Amino acid sequence: MSEPEALLVCQRLTRHFGGLVALAGLDLQVRRGELLGLIGPNGSGKTTFFNVLTGLFPPTQGEILFAGTSLARATPQATYRAGITRTFQRSRLCLELSIFDNLAIGAHQRLDHGLAFNLLRRRALREQADATATAARDLLEIFDPPLARRLFEPMLGVAMIDRRRVEICRALMSHPRLLLLDEPSAGMTTEETTRLMDDILEVRRRFGDLTIVLIEHEMSVIERVTDRCVVLNYGKKLCEGTFAEVSADAEVRRAYLGLT
Amino acid sequence: MRPAQAGARAALSAAAIAAVAALLLYGFLAAESEKTVGLVLAGAVVVVAGGLRSKVLPRLVRAAGERAVMSALAIAAVALIGVFHDDPFVLLLMARALLVLVACLGLHVQLADAGVPNFAGAAFFGVGGYTAAVLGHGATPHLLVLLASGAVAAAVGSLLLLPLLRTRGHYAALITIAFGLLFRTFLEVNETLGGPQGLKLGGLRLLGLSFNDDREIHGVEISGYAFYCLAAVALALVAVWLVRSVESSWIGVALDAVRLDETAAACFGISIGRWKIAAFTLGNAIIGVAGGLSAMMVGFIAPNNFTFQESLVLVSILLLGGLGNLAGLAVAALIVIWLPEKLQPIQEYRYLLFSVLVVLVLVLRPAGLIRRIARRPFGSLAA
After folding, report:
1. What pLDDT sits at residue B289?
2. Is the pLDDT reported for residue A260 higher than 70?
């Protein structure tokens, strides 16, 4: 074990929006290869943490170390190149485009965007498109084989659960090292949620080196899939540990579960 | 189906589309009285609407493939030029429609692909025209002059990049509007560029052929405008090829991502600035080349040709046709450029009519005459 155990280290991460303190000195570590659950009441800073981490909102203060390099001042594009991808709480797919186009957006980094390549070397472009389509199909197969057969259909006609799947696949297309899932089960039935979580576990099995941070409100999901949990409250870490440890914590029960 | 059979079917489908289009266009151009024009228009509406509604037209287009349809339409255009070879009025009308179409293709890359508004289309058209006027008198080969028209338009456009990248939507549109107004004022006070009186241009010369002269070939009198028309057809073909190649490639996917969701695009490594710059620059270059050729054809340019109103006409063609649809764009360009010329009584009210037409289309068919079609997969696995 020569590699450091922590893939992501956040130190005193702070983000203000005017007078509002969304993140208040968050210290958080994500271990290599783990599936970390991020829980906390609404407004506790979970999504803000993702947004700061992916460079959408630069942190007001604090440090982000990803595999040893600082990402505190990185643009969203740079965090993607470093190997962090995400899904969004409210689906942000391009509904006008096909499933394939959406997945190709996820693979941006690996595609050749040169003018000469795209205009003149059409044969090479076609080969690259075919390779991308095959990769996209393989990925969709993990989630839902019928969906994989609809690769070139427009996103608009795709059901909600399949949109979620496509969004996760888009994030996986670039083979990220860290995958951030922002409430993938929102708006889904219990059965759909169960299936989606099975799929995520399957993805984890296949992508050996993948580390996942999952924001989730459904406690049964957190209990079933996560290795470890971090509880946020008021932009700070309230506590961390396995789900059993965390759910037994008196402070967590007060802040989050509403128990006394 | 065997390849040869499929090829024959494609060729037939393309020929059918082009033949019907040529017939309608011929009827319209040859019509003398307003009544005939009205009849042809009604016929065109019935044919196009019927073809779309019954799905015959889309099926034909799919069977033919885009490339075959484009080639067939180009042949039809050349045939029409042949038919009207000695009618300068009709030829000028055709050439103008084609050049406006090319300019709209430039706007299409900017607005429909990358989502960058440009309400200074006429100004960039003008930059191309003035470039041709200044360089055209010298010894520079005119093909290079036309390329320079595009390059200068693109370079002038880069003046707007900084404010454009810092704004979006209405605010970005305002910047281009301001530029268009400034451009005209700049021309009016600039004595070197002829001030309000404008500049005269010599005609286009390519391969020792002067496009301005009428000539006689085997006893057939051919108007000089026929050659401009042919050049415009060639330019339109190049522009369509360029735009379609860009769209059916990774570049097109990246532009779509930037237009549809900048935040998500950024999270997947897509540089918003880079692609907006690329689309804006490419679009202006296309508009500039069209402007250069247009100025050479007309032989005279003045600031009054490049008003904000003209820019609005270009944008309204895009909206009318259906943002993102090239077929719709072509139809809209024909309607907007030809109709006032053919229906003299409405000439005076044309801006009023355009406005009403655009408002009606936006209310009744917000996606335009023909809606955007999703990108056809450019890989071979899709079939």
Report:
1. 97
2. no
pTM comes to 0.92
> Looking at the structure, do residues B302 and B179 belong to the same domain, yes or no?
yes
Instruction: Determine whether the interchain pair A105/B380 forms a contact, defined as Cβ–Cβ distance below 8 Å.
Output: no
Do residue B181 and residue B289 come from a single domain? yes
A98 in Cβ contact with A150 (< 8 Å)? no
**Which residues of chain A lie closer than 8 angstroms to B257, CB-CB?**
94, 105, 108
Distance CA B255, CA B259 (A): 6
Q: Is A82 on the interface with B (CB under 8 A)?
A: no
**Structural domain range at position A129:** 95-174
**φ, ψ for residue B198 (rounded to 5)?**
80, -165
> Could you give the C-alpha distances from B269 to A75, B257, B376, in angstroms and in order?
9, 11, 24
Q: What angle do CA A103, A107, A108 make, to 5 degrees?
A: 115
Count of structural domains, chain A: 2
Please check the confidence at residue B45 and state whether its pLDDT lies above 60: yes
Distance from CA of A7 to the nearest CA of B (A): 19
CB contact under 8 A, A92 and B264: yes
Which residue on chain A is closest to B250 by alpha carbon? Answer: A113
Q: Does A21 touch chain B (CB under 8 A)?
A: no
The ipTM value here is 0.92
- For B192-236, the pLDDT digits (tens) are 888 888 888 888 888 777 777 777 778 778 888 898 999 999 999
pLDDT of A1 higher than 50? no
Q: Which of residues 199-258 of B touch A (CB under 8 A)?
A: 242, 245-246, 249-251, 253-254, 256-257
Of B314, B351, B311, B339, nearest to B329 by C-alpha is B314
